[in-house]
Fold each of these.
Amino acid sequence: MGALRIFWVFAKLGFQNEAAYRANFWIQIFESLLNVGSALAAVSLVFSRTETLAGWGPPELVALLGVYFTVYGAIHIVIAPSLTKFMEDVRQGTLDFVLTKPADAQLLASTSEIRVWKLVDLVLGLGILCYGIAGLRDRVGPLETLGFGVALVAGAATVYAFWMILATFAFWFVRLENVLQIFWSMYQAGRWPVGIYPRWLRISLTVIVPVALAVTVPAEALAGRLTAANLVLACGVAIALLAVSRWFWLRGLRRYSGASA
Amino acid sequence: MSFLRDLYGTFIRISIAIEIQYRASSAIWLMGMVIEPLIYLVVWSAAAEAQGGTVGGYGPRDFAAYYLVLAAVNQITSGWHMWEFQYRVQQGQFAFLLLRPVHPIHGDLAENVAHKLAMQVALLPALGLLALAFQPRAELHAWSLALFVPALVLAFAVRFVFEWALALACFWTTRIMAVNQAYFAVLFFLSGRVAPLALLPDWLRHLADALPFRLMVSFPVELVLGKVSRPDALEGLALQLVWLAAGSAFLALLWPRALRRFSSVGG
Amino acid sequence: MSAAPAISVEGLAKTYVVPVREAGMRAALRSLFRRESRRVTAVDAIQFAVEPGEIVGFLGPNGAGKTTTLKMLSGLLHPTSGGARVLGFVPWEREHAFLRQITLVMGQRNQLVWDIPVADSMERNRAIYRIDAPRFRRVLGELVELLELGPLLERPVRNLSLGERMKCELAVALLHEPQVLFLDEPTIGVDVTMQRRIREFVAAYNRRTGATVLLTSHYMADVEALCRRVIVIHHGRLLFDGLLSALVASFASHKTVSVELGGPAPDLSSYGEVVSRAGERAVLRVPKADTPKVTARLLADLPVVDLVVEDPPIEEVIERVFAGEPAP
């Protein structure tokens, strides 16, 4: 598939670029450990004062953190740097470089930059996830694992679509440099189960910024709390959002190249 | 010093004009600053509910009071120059600052104050709305309200001085992201953001007392919410002055060395 | 005639410490705080003096040390060795009284604030340099007139063209009526008309105020228009310090003739010194006096498609003249 080949080329380039600076690897380890360590310390602090949090126990919360950091790492490897660069290109007017290539512009814009060392975040996330699952061992059966897999894919697709929509705004609002910050501000809330938030915040975290779908729903699957309804909702939202983001992107592209108002 | 008054007046006016141009970005940044205290407000309230009402003497409404005031104090004392300094040097703007017959810290201080003034327009109403939603409860005394103002001003000053010194680290290392992240991690725990300091394990609380971070954010919050006795409040104010003096002395020693580093590696 | 020079430089030298990236884990850990480095000499013991009111051109190719010298003289950098005095001050001590009397303008670098009107940036400088209101109005009025700034003052800097921005940069830099102007490539990137206007402004400003100007450029046109005296610097060393007329005489001795022929270029060494020859194009170096004759011969003898006669680029001239080429 052409798309995969393009992605592989970008990955190799990214790796060669970064491997030249091996110091970046150690810095990345430091930063990731700091990040993950702070999160775990916060959870441990809360559980030093209480046994459960809205019905969630320590291993479930650790699993949640695992999903949180896995998704965090995944976003930071490709999507975040590529779309940040894309928005910069729109601002500088250098997007034409991407548009004149014989491949889908959305694919190119989403995968142009790869930060290989962010794999550390992903790996750490997976490590914590496993640690959490170990604590939940008796409750994680094949059904839960399947639900987890589906929820994770749906969550990842939702996050990607959401990022695409945010980034596509660059076609209209060139000076909104930190629009992607909206996601990160709300994403922090994903460290804790979405059920603890008051209804209005829960709705924001599910509908407006789909943090809950990306992080809590997969974790719920592992904790055996996932309802079929929620899973169907998550998949439905993922598909719908992907469609919307694609449509929005094409609108933005037409506007950029002057084809329509 | 009418020169300084004129200088700050002009700087602040111009910074506010620039702020208005960047209001959308500022709004987004503000949202980020308010979300974190909101999250922990909810987390600790949930913990309190799971424990039958309170945790460490704080019930949900106490946490609401704590975190809403913390959100305001944290925003008011915050700074961003540790992120900007390296960028400024690389883009050549730092050279222009050095050419001026005023110390660059004045411009940054004025810019910081201007930003805070402008942000209150959005911050206070937002916190007001959140207060309606979360129903905070606190004991307010006249004396603690009176002492809150100098405590807040001193907290701002201590934090500004230390963070400006931190920003100078960019002359000694390019790994400024890592350095800043470490700083913010420490701040997260020791300035009362992850939890009210009273809820921290003893060893962390002792650490917090020995370092200036509590005085930068948590102390004014504790003070105004009546969590600090009058003698302790006065002691806290005195400590703030001590740390401010220490920080300023450190900065005065650091600055010429930073200039020499700038000079040796090239402008 | 005032006794002391405005600028005096004695044995001034600057060596940079440049970080070197190395591979390997240990080097990476070390690189956190102590970087491996090598030394680069930017300025190598130069010496000169500038009288008040002079406009001196500081010539040299990129990386010659011009900007580094200006940065030392304006106090931004400490020299590695040697000394200098500007208006009696030691620049790198950065006394406020010194900073108030100088200005440094760097081409393509703005001190103007991007998103707000030019007038606001000027207001800011007024406060910084403690210019009282009547003096500010007078100086601003003069600058607006000399630079034709009228409609530009109320526009945000981001809405100005590069040339307009440069004019405003100059104005803001001169609000405090400095006695010494350091202009580092002020015309770079600006269109030809605006370059001329900026040159005219600098000359007029110097006439009106008697300010000392030290101007760096790698455009010969800037220097020819403004400077009687030039200092040529290359590889950090002073190669020439004297009247422009003397320098011009020594390098205007030759011209560069570039031809494009209708077929492959034959051996053209009988016409002049062949600098390069590739396919249908060739570049010759011809003594100035012979240029009309050689051009006529080329046009008569060969199928010339295009022919261009130019002054040699200054980099090449400096390289050649001071690499030991005998004077013509």
Amino acid sequence: MKIVVENLHFSYPGGVDAIRGVSLVIETGEQVALIGQNGSGKTTLVRHFNGLLKPTQGKVLVGDWDTRESTVARLAVRVGYVFQNPDEQLFCKTVQDEVAFGPRNLGYAASKITTLVNDALAMVELLDQKETNPYDLSPTWRKMVALASVVAMDTPVVIFDEPTTGQDAASVARIANVIAALRERGKTVIAITHDIDFCAENFERIIALGLGKILLDGPSQEVLGQEETLALTFVDPPQLTRLGKRLGLPGVISNPQDFLEAYQSYINTDTSLHPGAGERQPSQS
Amino acid sequence: MVVVDVNELTYTYPASAKPVLSNVSLKVTQGEFLAIIGNNGAGKSTLCYAMAGFIPHFFRGSMHGSVHVAGKDTHVTSLYDIVQQVGLAFQNPFNQISGAKFTVYEEIAFGLENTGVPRPQMMERVEKVMALTSITELADRSPYSLSGGQQQRVALASILVMEPKVLVLDEPTSQLDPVGSREVFQVIKEMSQRGMTVVMVEHKVEWIAQFADRVIALHDGQILLEGKPADVLASPLLEEKGFGLSRYTQVARQAVNRDLWPADRPLPVTLQEAVEGFSRVSG
């Protein structure tokens, strides 16, 4: 399901110009991360994809549908949206009902709903909590219920607004697994995130927004290497990218494996990197 | 001077069989910046609630042991008196917005109104704290029209404006962009250097290492480790228990196996430590 944004402008009532001329195409099955400072328009932009917001100017196409002429309910068949705050979307008495709510509203057969619910709950490791009230779970697990309730709708496009905030390492890994599973199924995944390391490790394309405009859009490695432009929208490159740069390693490094290989080959060829080769120098700090 | 004194605290939520905190003891001295790390469900927020008097005054359940804040036993002190000493910023800023105010300016003044601060002082304090948290330009907006990160700054400002002796912050940068997070850490550090006692729950290890004076790692409701950031945050025990480590620590640990990082050198937590370590090692 292709998403096309053409010269989009959006102003909130009261005059805040949140989007100031954005054009982009997201192809079927792409994994795209949206980054940028608070207030740069990330959430405003993705809320156009499921019709929660309508363009002030320009247009957004989801497949062959113009969002200006489609209701949110209709677009829900094509675009699933996981809110930043799970408490804005959870209201059923049990986890199972919550996750079944979406597919039920899309009018699927009972057997298909059961399959979708079980599959989504397995993905977020909540199969054993079907009968639990979502509000008896911790905020972390409520986030997983919210995730599952959207995944279960089986939409071709899934949007995650800040999926990793407040999550521990195990939970972030779980979210990465969900994204990988969706990628395998050919879904388009769009995520808003401030977690740049998570972004580097899980997304092939990154779009950086600043003050309602696109600053950078391209393959992750390319975008993450643009330190000066990223600074304009208050984003630091990933930790290992910064480390590689400080050490003078070539290329944009975004994971431990790449770092160790680049470092190994660099010290094999460049002795200036380690003036005290063979012996350890006393630390200066 | 000890400002927060948690003594053998065990707490169980109502209708729950298992305690969330078991026999937790800790002291925080005046002007100290203590960071608390831990996995989801470790009891971090519960500990915040206990230090801010929400336990036992708002959450019932069973509490054993004691919590003293600024010398007062929270169990026998009224919430009204406790809030004059402690400010708590919730994990979820959306839940903290009062819903009773139309503008950010009024929202931040809400606590001061409720404690009877005279109007001229109230306005002076509100304006000062808005400048400090970089939200002056949001003054006339509705708190509900803001982005997640902007709301989080408002939530923080509305606690800072109370000028509490003890500031308890539950993941105060979760919604913020990286530069915004660093700014908040800097503001908090400044507060602690001026004598405010700070307890901050956070996941952002690299910045804890740079700003906090001490770290406590909470695991399954108990204190697993406690000490200086550099000692605690690179501890192998943390990795074993599934804590998130900085990428610098992770990569250096793998580098040890390849003889790219000396086994006897402490693992790095910050960029600077990593740069120093990797600049000195031979292949």
